[in-house]
Amino acid sequence: MKSRDAIGEEYGMTGRNIARYMRVQQLEEPLKERLDEGALPLVAAVDLSYLSGKEQEVVSGLAEKGKIKLDAKTAKCVRGMAGNVTEKRVLEALGGGRGKKGSAGKPIKLPADVYERYFAGVKPADVAGIVEEALAAWFGKGGVADVPGGRDREAG
User: With contact defined as beta carbons under 8 Å apart, do 143 and 152 qualify?
Assistant: First the structure.
């Protein structure tokens, strides 16, 4: 029996939850407070604990301003950007914040072998940027005349 399992048994918890509580000790104080208040789910807190202190401050600040909701989906997305977390990148990845689900565009699916061939080892948050650059190059830098039914990227 693992020591975390033994401790969990003693406190009526699973060993996995004991490990989670140990991990969230890496959180900065504002996020720990949100966890204690019940405003941050434990699983989301674990994901955010892998970010640097500065990155955690960015995420905490966005949540405090009401620009993002700290839930498991958001935390997983932001964790995927570890090392590159900025307000701008988080908001772009999450579709601009609350109430802007329509601005995220349409999702596409790639076969697993294609994804592995071209994106193995690439952070999920970086894939969209790579695809956008490749499409711009393929369609002649994204001009209206070059993109079927498209708009000029600079014109928005």
Answer: yes
Kindly report the pTM of this predicted structure: 0.58
Structure tokens belonging to residue 97:
């914040």
Q: What confidence category does residue 8 fall into, taking pLDDT thresholds of 50, 70 and 90? A: confident
Q: Which two tokens stand for residue 49?
A: 């604990």
Alpha carbon dihedral 114, 116, 117, 122, in 10-degree steps, equals 120
**CA-CA distance, 31 to 20, in Å (whole number)?**
14
∠ CA 94-59-28, nearest 5°, is 155
Point out the least confidently predicted range of 22-36, 82-96, 136-150.
Answer: 136-150
The CA-based diameter of the chain, rounded to the nearest angstrom, is: 68
